[in-house]
Design a protein that fits this description.
Blueprint (H helix, E strand, L loop, with lengths): L1 E2 L1 E6 L4 H5 L7 E3 L4 E5 L5 E5 L2 E3 L5 H17 L4 E6 L6 H6 L13 H14 L5 E13 L2 E4 L10 E4 L3 E4 L5 E3 L2 H13 L3 E2 L7 E2 L2 E12 L4 E11 L13 H26 L14 H5 L1 H5 L3 E8 L6 H14 L3 E2 L4 E3 L1 H8 L11 E2 L1
Parallel strand pairs: 2-6, 2-17, 7-16, 7-17
Antiparallel strand pairs: 1-18, 3-4, 4-5, 8-9, 8-12, 8-15, 10-11, 10-20, 13-14, 15-16, 16-19
Helix pairs in contact: 2-4
The structure holds adenosine-5'-diphosphate and magnesium ion.
The site of magnesium ion has 3 residues, from α3.
Protein name: Kinesin-like protein
Organism: Melia azedarach (Chinaberry tree)
Length: 365
């Protein structure tokens, strides 16, 4: 059993924050794992995480610490999940995608591009007797509906549970990709399909949870054996309180739905970490689509990393504190992921891939 990896990341002050002279930086670094957070009332809070990335931290550092070990596991058939959490404007999407998924200099590439590059580099250098297949899916959870970002006509994807493979997205588009460029072009088209709107917190904040799914399938041609790992990257919608966004009507409904699913995520984390010792208590995964999709990641069969993104500014202290407290609770989640092997007969010949297998144990949610 190992804990999930929890990191905090503080972005640089924005130009708006910098121009406000009464605004101070409220994070005071101790070292790469500890810092003091001073809130608006000058009260000190000490936080410790597996790693803290301060404003000068590079995208490459975040990738190497957070994603690279998980990518290595996914290649070996162990599922992995990387989640960015935080208020709108805190740097979640920047950490995932950099300023743009396709037109981006090397330095600012995010976790998604680096993961894609890392995956194809690994394949290039690997033994020729192993055949790799990489498949991409991309969905968003918007107003409690799972939408296929590669095919917008699939706007209400149902979830199924397989005893062997965990939670599956029924009928989701899977695109086979053979190089980084192709993968990123497809992901860029998925990103363009996201529901994006304006709130007072951020000019173009996304009010949906965005989920990238990479399936890495290996076929050991000599041994006639298959192995598959799933790597899931989740760019969550902003965690700020609905009333702070100044939203009304549909936008307020969206904000409330986001708050509800993030509360469900918090409740799942609480249930996983605060249960009575030795007893298996009820974990409310079914309370939202988000927690249902993240069930494998949080419930143990995945190596999981959480990046808590924060503004360094005192003007955002209360939201940052709430993000950091969320991360502190998540540190106590235990996981013991295992590789999933699929036999050739019942999966590959019939269906081409492990993850489209019609499993008798699947259940509609
Ligand atoms: P979120 O997805 O959490 O709403 P964004 O990732 O869109 O926030 O970040 C908000 C703004 O801050 C963007 O303009 C982004 O480019 C900038 N930003 C965020 N993190 C960093 C960082 N580490 N370095 C430089 N700019 C950043
Ligand atoms: Mg974003």
């Amino acid at each position: 059993m190992s804990n999930i990896t929890v990191c905090a990341r503080f972005r640089p002050l924005s130009s708006k924050e910098r121009s406000n002279h009464d605004d101070n930086v409220c994070v005071h670094s101790i070292d790469t794992e500890n810092f003091i957070f001073k809130d608006e009332k000058e009260e000190d809070f000490k936080f410790s995480f597996d790693r803290v990335f301060y404003e000068k931290s590079e995208q490459a550092e975040v990738y190497e610490f957070l994603a690279l070990p998980i990518l290595g596991d996914a290649i070996n058939g162990i599922n992995g999940t990387i989640i960015t959490y935080g208020q709108t404007g805190a740097g979640k999407t920047y950490s995932m995608e950099g300023p743009s998924i396709v037109e981006c200099d090397e330095k600012r590439k995010g976790l998604v591009q680096r993961t894609v590059d890392g995956l194809f580099e690994y394949i290039k250098s690997s033994d020729e007797s192993v055949k790799y297949m990489i498949k991409l899916s991309m969905v968003e959870i918007y107003m409690e509906k799972v939408r296929d970002l590669f095919d917008l006509s699939k706007d209400n994807i149902q979830l199924k549970e397989s005893r062997v493979q965990g939670i599956l997205l029924s009928g989701v588009t899977e695109i086979s990709v053979f190089n980084s460029g192709e993968a990123l072009q497809n992901l860029a088209s998925g990103i363009a399909n996201r529901a994006v709107g304006e709130t007072q917190m951020n000019m173009a904040s996304s009010r949906s949870h965005c989920i990238y799914i990479f399936t890495v399938q290996q076929e050991f041609t000599k041994e006639k054996r298959m192995k598959a790992g799933k790597l899931v990257l989740v760019d969550l919608a902003g965690s700020e309180k609905a009333e702070k966004t100044g939203a009304e009507g549909r936008v307020l409904d969206e904000a409330k739905t986001i708050n509800k699913s993030l509360s469900a995520l918090g409740n799942v984390i609480n249930a996983l970490t605060c249960g009575p010792p030795g007893k298996t208590n009820h974990i409310p995964y079914r309370d939202s689509k988000l927690t249902r999709i993240l069930q494998d990641a949080l419930g143990g069969n995945s190596r999981t990393a959480l990046l808590c993104c924060c503004s360094p500014s005192c003007s955002n202290a209360s939201e940052s504190l709430s993000t950091l407290r969320f991360g502190t609770r998540a540190k106590h989640i235990k996981a013991s992921p295992h590789a999933y092997h699929c036999s050739e007969e019942n999966n590959v010949k019939k269906h081409g891939t492990c993850y489209t297998t019609k499993d008798e144990s699947s259940e509609r949610i």
